[in-house]
Design a protein that fits this description.
The protein has 336 residues and is α/β, with parallel strands linked by helices. Helix content is 26%, strand content 22%. The chain has nine helices and 19 strands. The strands form seven sheets. Strands 6-3-5-4-7 form a five-stranded mixed beta sheet. A four-stranded parallel beta sheet has the order 10-14-13-11. The radius of gyration is 20 Å and the shape is globular.
Amino acid sequence: MCRQRNPRTLEGVSTSRIALYYKFVPLKDPEAVKLWQHTLCRELGLRGRIIISEHGINGTVGGPLKAVKQYVKQTRSYQPFRGMEIKWSDGGAEDFPRLSVKVRPELVAFGLDEVKVNDDGVIGGGEHLSPEQVHQLVEAKRAEGVEVTFFDGRNAMEAQIGRFKDAVVPETETTRDFVTELDSGKYDHLKDKPVVTYCTGGIRCEVLSALMKERGWQEVYQIDGGIVRYGETYGDSGYWEGELYVFDGRMNTRFSDQAKTIGECVSCAAPTSTFYNCLDRGCSTLQLYCTDCRHIPETTRCQACRKRLAENPQHPNSGALTRPRRRHQAAESVSV
């Protein structure tokens, strides 16, 4: 669940930061890169989650500002990662429970073997647009009498607290669900329309846009740098509304004091952006609750956990709810 942020400033200057990044590039020896990255982060005192595969690297790390800058410098010194874009965010090492560096088959778990990459990134992906170019596209298409569709490339839960206006939000619980959604025919009416895909930092759209083009979408774009870069550019004065779900202890962040609260409490429908797990120690179902209703997840099991225990009464998380539950971490995958 969300927690109160601790101040990290000294005379108005941030003393710690979080760096988010990814790069699709062929890697010959992911295990060697993993060992190097783990050693580098340990030496610099950083925490976070880093995924490495034969397709590249995807990471979120936090710690003292000087240490994170040194990490970025050394990581970029490796030829395949030169020029890798870094997105900076408020936060620090305490927003992560530990340092995790893993090798996996995919940088983002779509469950596919068809993703191909070269030194320029994912082969066959959508056209990258800067935030300014997104606005230019929308205005140009409207002048032609055509509306641009924003297509959410995140899990549906993330969109509950923030999304682009009038965006299409597929019914997805995991990234793997996108393949089923695209193949379902629900969105075939968009195949001859201009579509702008978006996700937190851009990585999921690299693959999603390629999948859409392979399945017949004609005009597919993606926001370069994702929602993070768009929010840095336009704050809450553009097409984005609400707050951004993030994959660390913060759980959500705002681009300005003008951000709307568009999430609704599942109990009373009051405005809220705060996600909670229920008291069950193994709960993985995040739901929105307002301050007045937060006692519900803090004292009871949610419907999903009750169903799980009904199906398996011997589940390790059965028994009294007075046991300390494990604290939910936003996601095992970095998925920026």
